[in-house]
Design brief:
single chain, mainly beta, two-stranded antiparallel sheet, 68% strand
Length: 114
């Protein structure tokens, strides 16, 4: 057994590597709705599938959704968002997470931002 961030992994009995073939599929959607010249809301979602074609080991599905609100005050853009994510490993729920994200971006007169 080898401990990893995603759980313990057991190597094959003879200690040799095995060949696996994977395909990766993914897609997403997003929509932004301006309320005015200085504020908008955005929503989005995506799905990703990492499928082991040789076995049911290490199949990984990720579903995520987010929503955010942004507004501009002078040269400073404030944005606040929520994100939720679900990860399935081998068709079993592995991890759920929820996040609050806040950003501040300030623009200068020369086109630079920080």
């Amino acid at each position: 057994m080898i401990p990893t961030p995603i759980g313990d992994v057991e190597l094959s009995a003879n200690g040799q590597s095995t060949d696996d073939n994977f395909n990766d599929l993914g897609g997403g959607v997003s929509h932004s709705k301006p309320f005015s010249k200085t504020s908008a809301i955005s929503i989005g979602g995506n799905i990703s599938r990492h499928n082991n074609l040789n076995s049911d080991d290490f199949d990984l599905d990720i579903l995520a959704a987010d929503a955010s609100y942004a507004h501009l005050v002078g040269a400073t853009r404030f944005s606040y968002g929520l994100r939720t994510q679900r990860v399935d490993l081998n068709s079993m729920r592995f991890q759920n997470s929820n996040s609050f994200i806040a950003n501040l971006q300030r623009s200068s007169g020369e086109g630079w931002s920080q």
